[in-house]
Amino acid sequence: MRDWIASRSPKPFAVVADNSGSQKLAQVCDAVGGVIRGKPESIRQALVAIIAGGHLLIEDVPGIGKTTLANAFARAFDLVFQRIQFTSDLLPSDVTGLSVFNQKTGEFEWKPGPIFANLVLADEINRATPKTQSALLEAMAEMQVTAEGETRPLPDPFIVIATQNPSEHHGTFPLPESQLDRFLLRLNLGYPTQDDEREILFDRQEHDPLDRVAAVLSSQELLEIQSSVGHVRVDEVLADYLLKIVDATRRHESLELGVSPRGSLALFRAAQANAVIEGRSFCIPDDIKHLVIPCFAHRILVGTRIAAGTARIREAERILRSIIDSIEVPI
User: Fold this and answer.
1) What does the pLDDT look like over 293-310, one tens digit per residue?
2) What does the angle CA 163 – CA 166 – CA 169 come to, to the nearest 5 degrees?
3) The pTM is what?
4) What does the pLDDT look like over 235-262, one tens digit per residue?
5) How would DSSP label each residue in 114-128?
6) Is the four-CA dihedral 27, 33, 38, 41 of positive or negative sign?
7) Sign of dihedral through CA atoms 267, 141, 154, 74?
8) Which residue among 216, 226, 236, 301 is least packed, with the fewest CB closer than 10 Å?
9) If you ran DSSP here, which 8-state letter would residue 282 be given?
10) Which alpha helices (DSSP H) does 34-86 contain, by range?
11) For residue 3, is it left (φ>0), alpha (ψ between -120 and 50) or beta?
């Protein structure tokens, strides 16, 4: 397979050819890592979602650093950042915007909502009602908002990073499968180690470490990197490997719902993005293998015999690990 890649890999493109793009992306990880201590893999996966042009769901208990992670990436990429605090009384118009009557002109004027930004943090998204949650569906899928009979494009790049508390917490509305399927990756941060938490304590003695995060790349450079992701070569053998994993989820006896074609496309794109981060113009098996769980765990539906919430996610991850172990990795 490696010989085949060497002979048929596409012409090098700027982001990969001289590794300057991957070096810059490594600097982004370092900048965010200075704020989110001890979570390099979570930061790496979040970066995969961003340069793939996808959306990210972070599920964990409050106070772990979910909001800080989103804010740090917005600063590192010099993106227009908006935070929406989802609550039970939040209305769809509070997200998308609405027309307001101007008494001076005697006309209604459109006031865009906070969704009109490059990076939108949907904080505690599962605390809002399903009606308000659905206000994000069109935006995430089509990069546009239709309100009051008019469709308005969203800025480019457009990325949603949503956070949610575990569904066992009081006052939460579980996200429907159609909403979950719009997120490229799902991850959780977890508690820091004692050593990392000690650094966190002293980091915040005199200032907020977010203030030290400077722009590493511009939004235009991010767009160029995103456009380069589609040029990464994926061997047909690797595509078959991906599809075998997908097919196994559709046939597994413990799953009521397997991975959809949108999920297949998501993993394909995420694998290409991971190759760009490493400065390669081609994918290798690890690009797929290491992203199966963050890409698929929230897309599959475990049987009803398993309790809802965190228990189902853990069981989904266990099933995916068994599927990965059962399928031969191409060499």
Assistant:
1) 999 999 998 876 665 667
2) 115
3) 0.88
4) 999 999 999 999 999 999 988 889 999 9
5) TTSSSEEEEETGGGS
6) negative
7) negative
8) 236
9) B
10) 40-51, 66-76
11) alpha
